[in-house]
Specification:
mainly beta, 4 domains
Length: 774
Amino acid sequence: MKFITIIVFIFMNLHFGFGQNLILGNEFKVNTYSDTTQREPAIASDGYGNYVIVWSSINQDGSESGIYGQRLNANDEKVGSEFRINTTTLKTQYRPSVDMNSSGRFIVVWASMVNINSSFDIFVQVFDESGNKVGSEILVNTTTANSQNYPDVAIDASGNFCVVWQSWFQDGSDKGIYAQRFSSSGNKNGAEFLVNTTTAYSQGRPSIDMSPDGRFVIVWESWKQDNFLPSGYGMYGQRYSSDGSKLGSEFQINTFTNDYQWFGDAAMDQYGNFIVVWCSWRQDGHDGGIFGQRYFQDGNKNGNEFQINTTTAYYQWLPKVAAAKDSSFAVIWSSWKQDGSREGVYARLFDKFGRYKSFEFRMNEYTENYQWEPGIAFGNENELIAVWSSWDQSSGKDYDIYARRIKPDIPQGKIIETAVNHVEGLSTSKIKVHLIDSTLTTGELYRVTFNKLNKDSIYSSVKNVTKNENRVLNFGIDKGANHFYLTQAFEGVAVEFNPDFNLELNLVESFAQINSASNLIYSFTNPTVGKKETAPMDLVLSFGRTDTSSDGKYIYPLDTALSRTGARVIIVPFKVFNLKDGQKLNSLVLENSGMLNNKWDAGESIVVLTPPPYATGSTSTHCQINNSPPAGLQPTLPNQGDSVFVLTHRPLTNEDVFEFTTQRNNFIVGVKDVHSNPEKFELFQNYPNPFNPVTNIKFQISYTSHVTLKVFDILGREVAKIVNEIKEAGTYNYQFSIMPSGRQVLNSQLPSGIYFYQLSVDNRISIKKMVLMK
């Protein structure tokens, strides 16, 4: 059984009414004392909106650094004054962590340099529901030789808790992970214990979380364990029962193992299911990215590792995760230059199934300089409370601690892609229209236009054409590629932009469509000869028959290409066309030096020349198509019906215009994953492909249902409706012709190009691509 997607079209009784990142309170400064530096914040909540924030403060306690806290209620009102947590004030206390249970009892841990001979040790202080200290601060680690650092803590519903930290040279290698359990009265429960099984090299920076019944999981980063060469950190974990016994063995968390996976954090829900998040270096094509892995309570992976951040430019790091009472979870992280300055704080909400529940959104309002070191907790339903350190925001003296409560957008759906029309322009950029509040939609026509100031600065406006009123003015698409661009909500929707900024070959999505027995493998590069001048076009290289006579010449040649010398003498069994207008394009064959026979042979690269008006001279070249058989095999030539497509990225310009309507039948309003046999509902690839003038489209359905089969052009405009009726279970074949025939209703006679055909059966949709070549 496999998963298919069922689209549910429901519009009755929708009263969600969420606005764009509904703010329940603007950001506010947490610390009262601000004469020096306050950093390293951590946050924990009781799940009902009440919470505590702790941080380190320089010189406030009369020594180098101390640990301070502030309790707040569900209205973000301070409960009492900020308070000092550490009793011992000699030298440095830093890197605090905190956890709180549902009764409001909380535990704070930190690293303390009070013993110069042993460097840092771990201390803990217990607080009751009213914020009163329970007993004195406690030295957690029994082994005090060398340094113990990076503590974390987790508490259960009864007040029992566990502290974890990294310890130098204790496990016989470099760093190792150790833990100590405590009873609710603050007494040690057993001895400190080694967590990691693998002790080679370093295991450090641990994180712990605990279920209400006392089960817990500890995760950490381990050097060279998941991939010896190239060396780097990987994420590992160990589960424990409520009595402190190990559940299973230590386990590797990250699937992607190249480079570094580190800065991990864990959150466990009330059932013992848990999620781990971390920063993965260069996995998303840039520097740091935020990834996660969900687990069932038995320790088995729940799905695959997944990317959390949408914006991938530069780096994202320092992730933290929190789980809610309903098993949904939220992730927060720091992102470089995303908010227009240096570091900024971003977050995303997920439902209990691990599906995106919100967009990626910014937490910090003030964006100058650094806002980083974030933490996150849940308030009431879908409310997120974030904390971070902010540079020079109010005191002018260094870092302060800021917090904010947000109820993020919970999008209800989106407009189906084929209902968003690219009516003018050549850009390959895309837009998506998200449904934010169905009760506010108008059903009216909107137009999206662009004002391009320079290559990287584009501004967009959205106009309600029906009312002739602007809804979005000069929205900045100005941070470059790989950023998440989403407008504010208007009339129930918000527009997301996926812009292309540069004219360049799309080497990733260019492809070969092989219908014969040919074994040639194709690759695409910028041209290695001539003057590279990329044209704003997609092209198809279409093969004819490749039969040869006894002297090796093609019996059915289709064109004559240029040689390396520029002479038009190379006989080829293919033609090249611009998919937009059907214009024939010239090509050049790079004959192998040992086979100069004035014909194209397998293994010889094909260079497509840049057409006018984009070429500045006769040596202008657009792209290069390379081909070769599998290693050790003789080549099998392509044949009639085989095609190679070379695509481009084309930037937004002032000429590009998109249109959409917010009619209710254009919205996808819910997605469910259900088990179904894919052989019972299937749309097959059309044949022949490419085609002219007729192709066959085959599909299969499993029960009597209403069926529509439509064809759309590359701009999303409907050009044909082939089927629109009740059909019984079975397999069907329909012909699609470029001229009107039968029940097909064509908007116009169609030009060459890429088209999409869409099968809709009740609430299920499948889409495939085909190519018309005249």
